[in-house]
Design goal:
The chain contains twelve helices and 14 strands. With 362 residues, the protein is of the alpha/beta class. Helix 7 (200-213) links the parallel strand 8 (189-194) and strand 9 (220-225). The two termini are 16 Å apart. The protein binds nicotinamide-adenine-dinucleotide (NAD).
Amino acid sequence: MELKIGVIRGDGIGPEIVAEAVKVLDKVGQVFGHTYTYQELLLGGASIDVHGVPLTDETIADAKSCDAVLMGSIGGDARVSPWYKLEPGKRPEAGLLKIRKALNLFANLRPAVLYDELKGACPLKEELTEGGFDLMIMRELTGGLYFGNRKTEEVNGVLTACDELTYNENEIRRIAVRAFDIARKRRKKVTSVDKANVLDSSRLWRKVVEEVAKDYPDVTLEHMLVDNCAMQLVKNPKQFDVILTENMFGDILSDEASMVTGSIGMLASASLNDTKFGLYEPSGGSAPDIAGKGIANPIATILSAAMMLRFSFDLDKEADAIEDAVSKVLEEGYRTIDIMSEGKTQVGTAKIGDLICERIER
Ligand code: NAD
């Protein structure tokens, strides 16, 4: 396969962790016979330094010309970085919001995987996590409460604030379809999370999800109220495969799910639109405190590259090869500083990338 991949190296540890993911993609290309063209794209602080703005229209056009984009994190330390002396709309993070909007990325995918080898980092009781767990949160990203009308006004002399939560059936259908498609590539179960006992938007959500489910008879659908889901994530995370939910519930539940896995350096993510295009990035930030030291954990970015192969290119075997190589490296006891524990071998960013590459096989 011939693929055009956009590469946003970003700020802080971004260039270091993206270099390792590119190294792994190159190794996959050699082993499985794929060739890539990499299109370098500037975003965030790196773009401000060159263009004075965090994202240019040319970069958006270049990103759109790619099959998918791999990204490190962007941003700096707001206490010392000159980027944060700029007005809010010109700071690094504004570029990220703008590119997500420009590329119509409405579906955010966050896997929460607890590797058996890292279960010591999990704050849950051991009997709940024996054997690890592997779930995926599919969060609607461009609708709902965060994008509704809002106002604060005085009503009869009392300050009153109002935020509107609106979803239409098309917005619900398109993300439900993505969730069921992804469940088909996994353990074939969707848990749709809502608050249908109270909210109209949730009742419509449930109705449309049930309609979509009819086209996927091989996938099991269950509904769960969001308050129950918050409890179940810490009580029995192994029960979940794909959790499908709206914007605000997903915001909260995905952070809860990532906390129970332990380390931020292990968490991949993807944002998808209604084509095969996606933006793939680690869930963590640019970690300016450790940038340039060669100690950042690149595994989240490497696993994001695996997600890109699986969800944008349908290269499931290649994605499996990366995930298996990561598991092997962990099983063999190699760790970056953030996941280090007694008796394991501490290695740096480039070394862990090399070890993963060596274990990529057909
Ligand atoms: P952060 O995630 O960058 O760092 C939090 C802690 O986790 C730090 O101690 C850091 O060293 C550690 N950490 C993060 N990733 C790591 C990795 N791969 N390996 C080892 N340790 C890792 O969060 P922050 O400090 O709040 O934010 C720093 C900057 O990142 C800010 O400018 C913020 O706006 C930005 N940010 C960007 C994104 C993104 O690009 N999507 C997301 C979150 C934060």
